[in-house]
Design goal:
Number of strands: 0
Radius of gyration: 17 Å
Structural class: mainly alpha
Number of helices: 4
Helix content: 55-70%
Number of domains: 1
Shape: elongated
């Protein structure tokens, strides 16, 4: 099975989308907490721009990270597991070969 030509059943697509949403919510909640903490440390005008730059970089990262397209979802899921936003057990219901690939990729990427 090639990673970019993986076939996904309707159920597997729903499971993958739900996993992406769970991870995205976790990451956004962590980001909000970080922004709140950083905002309390704003004392000068330049501090605002540092926060702005931080948020711009995070937005760029988040915009590409949660891509549900079939060709990249294995990579997305593996990255999220590796970063700790998702647990491999939350992918239960996917074909075992897909779970194995996600698990293996967490050690490579």
């Amino acid at each position: 099975m090639q990673l970019t030509q993986t076939e996904w059943s309707t159920t597997e697509k729903r499971i993958a989308q739900a996993a992406l949403e769970i991870a995205k919510e976790r990451e956004i909640n962590a980001l909000v907490a970080t922004v709140r903490q950083r905002a309390t440390k704003i004392h000068e005008f330049n501090d605002l721009w540092h926060l702005h730059d931080f948020l711009s970089a995070r937005r760029y990262d988040l915009d590409g990270k949660y891509d549900p397209r079939n060709a990249t979802v294995i990579f997305s899921l593996a990255g999220l597991v590796k970063e700790g936003w998702l647990k491999i057990t939350e992918l239960e219901g996917l074909d075992q070969e897909k779970i194995t690939k996600v698990s293996a990729m967490t050690r490579m990427i």
